[in-house]
UniProtKB/TrEMBL annotation:
Taxonomic path: Archaea, Thermoproteota, Thermoprotei, Sulfolobales, Sulfolobaceae
InterPro entries from the UniProt entry: KaiC-like_dom, P-loop_NTPase
Superkingdom assignment: Archaea
Record keywords, A-Z: ATP-binding, Cell projection, Cilium, Flagellum, Nucleotide-binding
GO MF annotation terms: ATP binding
Residue intervals passing through the bilayer: none
Protein name: ATPase involved in biogenesis of flagella-like protein
UniProt feature coiled coil, ranges: none
Sequence ranges assigned to domain KaiC-like in this UniProt record: 4-221
Length: 227
């Protein structure tokens, strides 16, 4: 099943969201990965799905406010009980591999109780401290959730996984996006690239876009050649 993001320009170029699926969005700070993840969630909610956002970087109020400021208003869904927020304040923990393993188990158990989808924004801190074998068990658990009809969307910063883990993580994901910033002429834009796609997805492999406070995600009608 392909579900529209509800952003017409984005859907025309990206092709919509495969459901169910495990989707990874990798990108540096400020490259639009969190906004893109929220847009995917908005599309799922608009299609009648319900689920949760696990945010490790902001409070519930802060996340919803930030997304409403870029025209992704999740608050009505939150107030109607279609969207739940699960803030995970990672800054208060003393991180080690044992704690990371416990949190991975906790998140998997949480996902099992969710109806349709979960967005984890972002997974970076947990993945940085988790051991490879624990991450692989976690990814196997996510695959089981997808096989049971759930959508899992994860945002992560570059270098959050060790070199030997990156290939394994991509092999488990159905769709793997990478966001970045680029200069086209004198204009600074964001770019989302499909690094891996599932058989059900279509659309462009590389899309340039901007995040306009008055319009939300706006596709920039410029082509960007891969380096």
């Amino acid at each position: 099943m392909i579900i529209p993001t509800t952003n017409e320009e984005l859907d025309r170029r990206l092709g919509g969201i495969p459901f169910p699926a495990l989707i990874m969005i990798e990108g540096d700070h400020g490259t639009g990965k969190s906004v893109m993840g929220a847009q995917f969630v908005y599309g799922l909610l608009s299609a009648g799905k319900s689920g949760y956002i696990i945010t490790t970087e902001q409070s519930t109020y802060g996340y919803l406010k930030k997304m409403r400021e870029v025209k992704i208003d999740l608050i009505p869904f939150f107030l109607r009980g279609k969207l739940g927020m699960a803030p995970l304040n990672t800054s208060r923990f003393s991180w080690n591999s044992s704690l990371a393993k416990k949190l991975l188990y906790f998140i998997l158990e949480f996902i099992r109780r969710v109806k349709d989808f979960v967005l984890i924004d972002s997974f970076t801190v947990i993945s940085t401290f988790a051991r490879g074998e624990d991450l692989m068990e976690f990814l196997k658990g996510l695959r089981v959730a997808v096989s049971n009809g759930k959508e899992i969307i994860i945002t992560v910063h570059p270098n959050a996984f060790s070199e030997d883990m990156v290939t394994r993580v991509r092999s488990e994901a159905d769709v793997y996006f990478r966001t970045s910033s680029a200069s086209i002429g004198n204009r600074r834009v964001k770019v989302i690239e499909k690094i891996k796609t599932s058989e059900s997805t279509f659309g462009s492999d590389s899309i340039s876009f901007d995040v306009d406070p008055s319009l939300g995600i706006k596709v920039v009608p410029l082509t960007l050649s891969r380096a």
